[in-house]
């Protein structure tokens, strides 16, 4: 059994509750939500932060993820989908899963790692007529959530 943040109930292991400095965003295909989150975190994080995204079954970055990030001045054209084995996931202080499949197949992490689950709908699954708007809504929701994880300036 786990708590809302993924911690085992009744666990005495100290958990990381400070500002994130090494974030890993995980989703099944590492094509949309996790790529958007990585791009936003890289743009907002202070110098020295380490940011990665990966998928349990990576494919390719969705063109609409690239498009909606370009709308806010962020370039994902050099991003590529990566598998968990391609990133140093064991160095993360915060692991965020963005879909149910990734939450279930995410590797076991230390009890000192903050593990969050943000079950956002897959914007690529929206109807063709509403897909671009779904990507924008996902981007905007992730922007708010990612900013809450990062250290605040004084």
What count of helical segments does DSSP give?
Answer: 4
Architecture, according to CATH?
3-Layer(aba) Sandwich
Shape: globular
Count of DSSP strands: 4
Distance between termini?
A: 38 Å
Explained architecture:
With 154 residues, the protein is of the alpha/beta class. The chain is built from four helices and four strands; from the N terminus they run E-H-E-H-E-H-E-H. Helix 2 packs across helix 4 (131-149). The radius of gyration is 15 Å and the shape is globular. It starts with 21 loop residues before the first strand and ends in a 5-residue tail after the last helix.
Which key features would you list for this structure?
154 residues, alpha/beta, Rossmann fold, four-stranded parallel sheet, 4 helices, 4 strands
Short description:
This protein is of the alpha/beta class and 154 residues long. It has helices spanning 33-44, 63-71, 100-105, 131-149; strands spanning 22-27, 50-55, 94-97, 114-117. A 4-stranded parallel sheet has the order 2-1-3-4.
Question: Mind sketching the topology for me?
Answer:
Elements: E1 22-27, H1 33-44, E2 50-55, H2 63-71, E3 94-97, H3 100-105, E4 114-117, H4 131-149
Parallel strand pairs: 1-2, 1-3, 3-4
